[in-house]
Structure formats: C-alpha cells, structure tokens
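Final report, Chapter 2: Outcomes

The project's central promise was a pipeline that accepts a single protein chain and returns its three-dimensional structure in a standardized token representation, suitable for archiving and comparison. That pipeline is now operational. To close this chapter, we reproduce one record exactly as it appears in the project archive, with the input sequence first and the structure output second.
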Amino acid sequence: MMPLLITGTSTEVGKTVVTAALAATARAAGRTVAVCKPAQTGVAAGEPGDLEVIARLAGVTRTVEPARYPDPLAPDTAARRCGAPLLTLAETTAALAGLADAEVVLVEGAGGLLVRLGEFTLLDLARELAAPVLVVTAPGLGTLNHTELTTRELDRAGVRCAGLVVGAWPEQPDLAARTNRTNLPRVTGADLIGAVPAGAGSWHPGRFAAAAPGWFAPGWTRRYLGAGDTDHRVPPVTARATA
C-alpha cells in the first residue's frame, strides 16, 4: 500500500493526534502499521516527541525519526541553529524504504505543506513517492482560506489530495465551525472524510483506540487504510465517538 502523508494547514491543527487516530483505525482492522516523522523539532535527545504520542495513543511500535532538533522552529531553521546538516530527500526515502513491509505507512509532516523539513518540503516528498496527502485543518475562522491554499498547491503540483480532516472538532461548535464543515469541501473540491474531537489526545489509550475508527468515513478508511466498508459519508462526531 502506498504511504499516506499527513500535512496541516498550519502548525497546531492536530496532525499528530489525527495520525494516531489513523494508526489506531488501521490497527483495529488488523493491519500492521509504521509511522515516520521525518523531522522533529522542539524536543531534546531522549525527550518524547510526536512519535511517542502516536505510540501511546495507537499502540504503534514501529516508528522512525530521521532527524531531531531542539529548537521549536521550522526544521531547516532549527538544523542551521544547532549546526546540523539539513535532512535530505534521499535520507527520508531511504528511511521509508525500511518500512515498506508494513501494510500501512503514515508520514507526518511538520507545520504546513511547504515547511522545509530540510532540503525539501512534504510536497517534494509526496511528488517523489507519488503518494497522496491528507490535509488536517482547523474548524474555525480562517480555515477556508488556509485549506484552499493548501489544496490548490497540491493540485498545482499534481499531487493527489486524499481528503480533509478537522483536527480538533469542538464539543460545542460555533456558527463558523458549523458552516465551515459544509463549506470546506465546496471551496476545495476535496472530501471532508473525518473529524477528531478536541482534546482526544489526552484520552486514555484504550478509549482513544476504541473511538478512532468512528471518526473517519468508512469508505475512505477502506481505500487508504484497508479498513471499513464502502460508505464515503463522513460520520458526525457524536456522543458515541466522544464518550
């Protein structure tokens, strides 16, 4: 199965928790899962980063992190500040090749689509792998513009958008969030295939793993994760998903 790349419309939109939810959904269907974070910033050696969050929530044991830098900055800037060489596209594709025997391989980017992970962006990696990109977006004001810019750039580069996911759907959505849920597919031409409840990253792993498959359209999970049926409608975030 082709790797699935996960990007965001910006930083702090929920990419890590969405990646964990995807991993949990695939594992619930009996798939073997591996996760790659090409460049982790803002944590020192030995400190837990995004992969540790994903491992805790989803139970994934196979992860790879080709580069890590202590400053909480874009990876290329963080690398320069600590005197480290910039991560290369070749190094990253080699790391992913080592995960090729996993049935589902997820790749979480840093920040947005055009953030420099080193000498390249996640968009460059997607083109190199001919891999689809899932876009994690925010629910509130500003998200229509940010999401449309991201999906336009994917389209311009000839990279398939695998869909949109709201990374932190509020328990009590305001008017902007409710209308954005309808308007995001309209302005981008991409399906809204999931929504993760706000705060889910702090849940107990058992609760998280049990709820995660209900956050994504089953037909989409069948196509991209080898799980679910053929219904492409996105399920609502309901009491069943958040209890």
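Archive annotation: The first helix runs from residue 15 to 28.
This record, like all others produced under the grant, will remain available to the consortium after the project formally closes.
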